[in-house]
Amino acid sequence: MLHSRTSDRDQETPRRDHPKGHTLSYLRAGLNVLTVDVEDYFHVQAFADQVSPRTWAKYSSRVVQNTHRVLRLLKEHDVQATFFVLGWVADRFPRLVRDILDDGHEIGCHSFFHRLIYELTPDEFREDLLMATKAIGEITGGPVQAYRAPSFSVTNRSLWALDVLIDEGYRYDSSIFPIRHDHYGLPGAERFPHLIERSHGALWEFPPSTIRLGRWNVPVAGGGYLRLYPLRLSLRWMDQLNRVERQPFLCYVHPWELDPEQPRLPGRWKSRWRHYQNLRTTQRKLQAVLSRYRFAPLGDVLKSCGIEKCVSFDEAVAERPLGVSTG
Ligand SMILES: [Zn+2]
User: Taken in order 251, 252, 255, 261, is the CA torsion positive or negative?
Assistant: First the structure.
């Protein structure tokens, strides 16, 4: 069984607040996970201090065309992914959610209003979650069981959110980033897929991928990190996860990251740098990743990892018929 190593500073994390987990020990089928957070360029945390949800309807939306750009790429590479859809997007563009489903992808939830969980009360979080689950579930016609928090905002301050997710029928989560960051992160958390046991039940967690460099977990496979690093370095680190650590990686992308022509919003230089750097490289880099590795939706990969190692996995997912893994 593999456990992530923790540095001295990481061990400052209070263990009683730390999610317990059983790390899966190997990659059975060579499958990785690609996730897509379906949101528009004006929904993002980087500009949340400039753009209130009350004004979202005034912006020119590009999420439909940009998500279709992602769908075309995935179809070209015969890859199926997990799309975490913002409830606000599902509410306004139900046809887009049906198009994603029709292409055989898994649909998850990315909240309704894209608010940071650690700034909400448990009741506010539950209210937002129920709105989003309803908006998405009415289109998919089935239970919504996979969750991605806005800006990975499940941290030491908001681990209670896992209990709310379990209460509301969620089975998988991908919201705990095991790194240090100014907006998110839980540096001592497990790096690989694991079952989190809470007083309310259990939930499978697939963290965004990191590699271990010295004392640090370094994020490697998605979003701004994929845009920032040279492609060759990203591929080397993804290879390392599959071949040396024998684990699946999770790569994430946003539809707006494939849209260099999106309208520019005002904001602090750091926010603008994070959001706009290397947008022109995303499509090329994503194509390279899609060509090189095998992928399947989150629920399928967790099943392929866990089915022989952890009996409770089947119990956890038994209510959801799983699709066919691709690759
Ligand atoms: Zn988001």
Answer: negative
